[in-house]
Amino acid sequence: MATIRDVSKLANVSVATVSRVINQSGYVNEVTEKAVRQAMETLSYVPSDMARSLAGKKSATIALIVPDILNPFFPELARAVEDAAHQLGYTVILCNSDHDPEKERNYFGMLKNKRIDGIIVASYTIHPQQLLELQRQSIAAVVIDNHFPSHPILALQSKNREGAVMAVRHLLDRGCTTIAHISGPLEILPSRERLLGYELVMREHGMFAPSLIAEGDFHVEGGYRAMQELLKLHPDIDGVFAGNDLMAIGALKALYIAGKAVPQDVKLIGFDGIALATVVPELSTIAQPIAEMGKLATHYLMRQIRNEPVECKTHELDVRLLVRQSTTD
Ligand code: RIB
């Protein structure tokens, strides 16, 4: 079976040149590329992933690390990343870190051994030095849903605070006067940013009260428990902003059990815009540009892999208010 070295000898070029032709990475003039492709055809050479990796240090493989594969936000993100990567001939390795730093470190070690070309990381436990170390080892890295402004790390996130402001103002526009917030886990940056947006508007209207805030876990159960706690303290709640759609669904269950009709008694809005938010009543929500985020993250990662110029900064993406049944009576 022909090897990459056989192709390089027949085409009278270096192994690295053959690899550049295989991976379409770096410059190869037309005559040389034609000679290499002719040699590959003559020898019926099929590049192996290892051949790609050893010769050109490109494995045509990237990884996506997410913290919670059971939260529909991340599979929707993974879908967008895989679509974009596949179009460019790249394979995606999906890793679920469970918000566990140790598990994340193990993934980084495994991925380095697989000589992957880049990593898209949606993580709240990662340290910027880990990403800078990857880059020192020529592994491109892009962060999603988090950012490290004092480091040269490219990051993408939604305008979380602005989205929270939109959500609370929408509830006010709908006539709500006692508005609660179910936050995500506060060790997570987007949760803190959304809480800030809620607090900003509530203070603007002289309505802020810490007892109107309960911390959830970004899951249905956490939203359910937080809503129960809030109703015990404030049975007069008439508006709820949940930090993500799963917790909004949990809150819906608690409100139903408490005999509160949505939206007639309590108006409810979530955050993310996942497909599951079209339950009954359909949830009003602040939709994140999940597909665009995944596509852009892959685009920037590929630019880094191809050593093309890319500014390492935080890109904040717009969010959209989707008004549906849960705030409209
Ligand atoms: O629903 C999961 C949440 O985790 C999303 O809001 C996403 O932004 C991440 O913070």
From TrEMBL:
InterPro entries to which the protein is assigned, alphabetical: HTH_LacI, LacI/GalR-like_sensor, Lambda_DNA-bd_dom_sf, Peripla_BP_I
Keywords annotated in UniProt: DNA-binding, Transcription, Transcription regulation
Pfam families: LacI, Peripla_BP_3
GO molecular function annotations of the record: DNA-binding transcription factor activity; transcription cis-regulatory region binding
Record carries keyword DNA-binding: yes
Domain HTH lacI-type span(s) in chain numbering: 2-56
Source superkingdom: Bacteria
Keyword DNA-binding part of the UniProt annotation: yes
SUPFAM superfamilies from the UniProt entry: lambda repressor-like DNA-binding domains (SSF47413), Periplasmic binding protein-like I (SSF53822)
Listed name of the protein: LacI family transcriptional regulator
Origin species: Paenibacillus hemerocallicola
